[in-house]
Amino acid sequence: MTTEPFTLTPSPADPQPVKVFRLDDYEWWAGYSLQQCIDAAHAEDGEDVMEYETESRELTPHEMDTLCLFYEDGSRRCFKFELDRRIAAGEQFPQLFASTEY
User: Fold this and answer.
1) Rounded to whole angstroms, how far apart are CA atoms 1 and 88?
2) In this predicted model, what pLDDT tens digit does every residue of 75-92 receive, in sequence order?
3) Among the listed ranges 44-58, 61-75, 81-95, which one has the minimum average pLDDT value?
4) Once rounded to an integer, what is the mean pLDDT over residues 8-25?
5) What's the rounded Cα separation, in Å, for the pair 65 and 68?
6) Domain limits of the chain?
7) Where are the beta strands (DSSP E) in the chain?
8) Which of 33, 62, 72, 97 is the most buried (most CB within 10 A)?
């Protein structure tokens, strides 16, 4: 079984694929590169960049299919489905994708 990182096929207007990155035990960010997500997270919350740089990594396809967001109404969406939905909705990246804190 391979563990290649998940990437969405880019559209002609968007040359880079959007990926999901685990920055630490509490936050996942979506963006075009790990460094872009680290910089955006640091700008938003002021967390120590060194912590992100030692723990951060791109999610595998298996993680994209199995990690899910749970909603107050009891519904859930796996990360892959949610990323595809956000891209189709025209959302801007990088962005906080998921958090255990909220």
Assistant:
1) 29
2) 999 999 999 999 999 999
3) 44-58
4) 74
5) 8
6) 19-99
7) 19-22, 27-31, 57-58, 68-70, 76-78, 95-99
8) 97
